[in-house]
Design a protein that fits this description.
alpha/beta
């Protein structure tokens, strides 16, 4: 039963010439591979078993050195399909890339290619779970994999069932801080709770708890530690319980169920030893993004020689993890810290990551604190390596990134600059990026212009013009350059795409570069969901939920102004058809109302089979988006089999949306982000793992980076916090206390938890800026316009607008001050 790779399940068979390869030549090749690595990278190649932590800076060549280390380990220990090295990474594209690199190294060594497998974390878990469906309690032939989010109908159904069973607690939430009993306000609060607040709480709390192995009853037990009026974690536990019941009843599984299923399999001693006997070692990339259960899975597989898995503090993550065979989840007890060294010696495990590039922890269960602590313990044992040399960027760009890292950490600390604030870890691990030494094969590239350029345009429109002019200048001088504009929000990207396209149209010359907005291509996957929401409104226009969902689509497409949609949807009839005695609607309300009535008129005048095409035109979709609409319409027409009723069309669309199998139409996807001669507009999050010769980072204002605490107006009746973020902070506090601190403390109350959540978000925003800066190789261009919109979420550049004065990001101000002091 070999550990099949999800990318290639057929191990390669060595040829006769490979088997007869001279041993001496192979040793020379091994030595050549080792000598090609830098000092920090060589720790991987010199690994001879045990646990190793590697903290790598951006551009340090993690994948390259891990591929060489894998090939050396395969050669040194003569690994084969029945005793393999398992390489685990975060995404399919990363898995394909590192697999190709390992194969290249093995071919140089004239070794067979069957001594390793590469998996994503979920692919590895699924491989284990599906081999033993009786133990994993997962059967993909009868189950459907879903990726629920806040708007998923399963979460909304869980909310409705919880409300029906918990009227008293729901009434407490409905009353909020104060309530005068006015019926319209009651209806508005009910809609906000059912459509926004409770689904958001469920989505956040379930993911945080389930990815940490907590059952609903575990979450409820933690909630008993907080004696606050709303009992937020108790509510979250109830929502979690209803969610699990619905999942089981409908034969749904989510990605955490894959990990849990694999852990259930490995709880069987015989099966565990069988899998461990096939795994020589585990190499993990992007370890800062692993969740606790994912880390636990790798620890078990990394147990040496089929011995029992370390039950206590294997790498200090989660101790004594006991997967309950009869439950979907895990339970935890406190570790015996005296066994840490002994159990870690029983692992063949390398974890490579960069905690300074942890940019997913405020919207996923990933938490960089675990990898940081893992590195700290490894440092104490002398098994921590640091890859701090990087040849990606010019030294001026490296210096700017290092300055931001130290400046942020310094401002995070007390005035003496030495003692961290209580209960607060600095956003960055203190490790500088170092240029590579002279003679390195990669070598730091030459700078373009000043290397780092800081600009303060008059406003955001002026920003677009400056970027356009600078891009023309760059591509005219070097047509093969690669360049990107990194934005914080997709709306910023759409604004820049339209502004730059307009500038290209107005220019008398042929465009010197191709403009590619990433979010436009990726919006295609949302087309079925957008059309479903509009058709559901046409089917039930007097449903508050349907009306609000349709208005959200229209606002997102900038067809109606941004406004309080909960208030509009509270009384659909009054909004759609206001009576003569009603007060006049405000202009933005009237515009939204008129748009919705036009849609309803089309519902009457057009046959049902034409509605999808009509809505595509109404939403002002682009050419490629309309191609996706046409593809979708054809599929729906085939599946309704002549029954063109609106209910039949809705059923097909629901199946498409929930199955997540529909792919949009894209013109070209090969190397689409980093093509030479192209200016790519992409979000900072999606830019991670990529690099360009020139990087533009505009709109660096303090309301986005690091951001300011914000509570939606519609939810302020509960207080100056959001339930979801409070729950996230309380759950993480409980987990940190139990598995990292070893102390039992009272969980923070809502306001304190909210402050902690905002500090975590602030820290992550600074790490996101650091990631964006380190994408640049030869030119880093950063700007903070003096004027801009009050909020990008409400800004519509197609209409007249009033800008307001904007405050630059504090890190941008500090970097500008440093540059001025140095005379640059």
């Amino acid at each position: 039963m070999p550990l099949d790779s999800e990318l290639d399940t057929t191990p390669s068979t060595p040829s006769l010439s490979q088997n007869l390869a001279p041993q001496q030549g192979r040793e020379e090749q091994l030595q050549r591979l080792r000598s090609s690595l830098r000092p920090g990278q060589q720790s991987l190649a010199q690994w001879q078993g045990g646990t190793l932590a590697v903290s790598a800076v951006p551009g340090a060549g993690k994948s390259h050195s891990m591929a060489i280390a894998a090939a050396i380990a395969i050669a040194r220990y003569q690994l084969h399909p029945k005793r393999q090295l398992v390489v685990v990474t975060f995404t399919r594209s990363a898995a394909a890339s590192i697999k190709s690199k390992i194969r290249d190294c093995l071919r140089q060594l004239q070794l067979p290619l069957g001594g390793f497998v590469v998996h994503t974390l979920h692919g590895l878990a699924l491989n284990i779970a599906t081999r033993h469906p009786d133990l994993s309690q997962l059967n993909l032939e009868t189950s459907t994999l879903i990726a629920p989010n806040q708007s998923h109908r399963l979460l909304k159904a869980a909310v409705e069932q919880w409300i029906a069973r918990n009227r008293d607690r729901y009434s407490i939430l409905l009353e909020g801080l104060q309530f005068d009993g006015e019926e319209t306000e009651r209806l508005r609060r009910q809609l906000v709770l059912r459509a926004d607040i409770l689904p958001s709480l469920a989505n956040t709390a379930i993911r945080e708890a389930k990815s940490s192995g907590l059952l609903p009853e575990d979450l409820a037990e933690i909630g008993q530690q907080t004696r606050e009026e709303y009992a937020i974690l108790t509510v979250a536990a109830g929502l979690y319980q209803q969610y699990e019941k619905l999942m089981k009843a409908r034969s749904f599984i989510d990605y955490d169920d894959m990990i849990l299923g694999a852990l259930r399999v490995l709880e069987n001693p015989n099966i565990r030893r069988l899998w461990q006997s096939q795994v020589f070692a585990v190499f993990e990339d992007e370890a800062q993004d692993s969740t606790p259960l994912q880390s636990r899975l790798l620890e078990i597989l990394a147990g040496r020689g089929g011995v029992s898995p370390p039950a206590q503090n294997s790498v200090g993550m989660f101790h004594e993890t006991l997967v309950r065979n009869s439950e979907v989840g895990t339970g935890f007890s406190h570790p015996d810290k005296n066994q840490e060294t002994e159990t870690e010696e029983d692992l063949n495990l390398i974890r490579v990551g960069d905690p300074n590039q942890a940019i997913n922890s405020t919207f996923t269960p990933a938490d960089p604190i675990y990898f940081n602590r893992f590195c700290d313990r490894a440092s104490n044992r002398g098994t921590l390596a640091t890859m701090n040399q990087a040849g990606r960027s010019h030294p001026l760009i490296i210096n700017a990134a290092n300055f931001v890292l130290h400046w942020v950490n310094q401002t995070w600390l007390n005035p003496d600059g030495k003692s961290p604030k209580p209960n607060s870890e600095a956003p960055f691990r203190p490790q500088d990026i170092q240029p590579v030494p002279p003679g390195d094969p990669q070598g730091n590239p030459e700078a373009i212009g000043n290397g780092v350029e800081l600009v303060t345009p008059d406003d955001i429109i002026h920003t677009a013009k400056i970027i356009g002019d600078r891009a023309v200048e760059l591509f005219n001088s070097s047509p093969e350059l690669s360049a990107a504009i990194l934005v914080r929000e997709n709306r910023q990207g759409r604004f820049l795409a339209e502004q730059l396209a307009q500038l290209q149209r107005e220019s008398a010359r042929e465009p010197s570069f191709h403009l590619y907005e990433v979010s436009e291509a990726e919006r295609h996957s949302h087309i079925p969901e957008e059309l479903l929401k509009l058709l559901q409104f046409l089917n039930r226009p007097h449903s508050p939920d349907s009306l609000k969902a349709a208005l959200e689509v229209l606002v997102a497409r900038q067809l109606v102004p941004t406004q309080d949609l909960n208030r509009l949807a509270t009384q659909p009839e009054q909004f759609l058809y206001p009576g003569l005695l009603e007060p006049p609607q405000k202009p933005q309300v009237a515009r939204a109302s008129q748009y919705c009535r036009n849609l309803l008129r089309a519902r009457i005048e057009l046959p049902n089979y034409q509605l999808i095409a009509f809505l595509g035109m109404t939403l002002n979709y682009s050419g490629s988006e309309l191609a996706t609409v046409h593809k979708l319409g054809d599929r729906v027409a085939r599946q309704v089999t002549g029954q063109h009723s609106l209910s039949a069309i809705l059923d097909v669309l629901r199946e498409i949306v929930t199955s997540e199998r529909f792919e949009g139409v894209e013109e070209d996807t090969e190397d689409r982000y980093t093509r030479p001669g192209q200016l790519t507009i992409i979000t900072m999050h999606k830019a991670k793992g990529l690099d360009w010769d020139c990087v533009f980072i505009p709109f660096l204002h303090d309301d986005l980076i690091p951001g300011k605490p914000w509570v939606p107006t519609g939810g302020k009746f509960l207080g100056d916090f959001t339930l979801a973020e409070v729950a996230r902070a309380q759950i993480r506090n409980a987990l940190h206390q139990r598995y990292l601190d070893g102390e039992s403390r009272v969980l923070p109350q809502p306001l304190e938890a909210w402050e902690q959540a905002m500090k975590l978000k602030k820290a992550e925003e600074y790490r996101l800026l650091y990631v964006a800066m380190t994408r640049a190789k030869r030119l880093l261009w950063m700007s903070a316009a003096q004027q801009g919109p009050f909020s990008w979420s409400t800004f519509s550049w197609q209409r007249a607008h009033n800008f307001q004065k904007k405050t630059p990001c504090p890190a941008f101000r500090a970097l500008s001050k440093k540059q001025l002091s140095e005379g640059n």
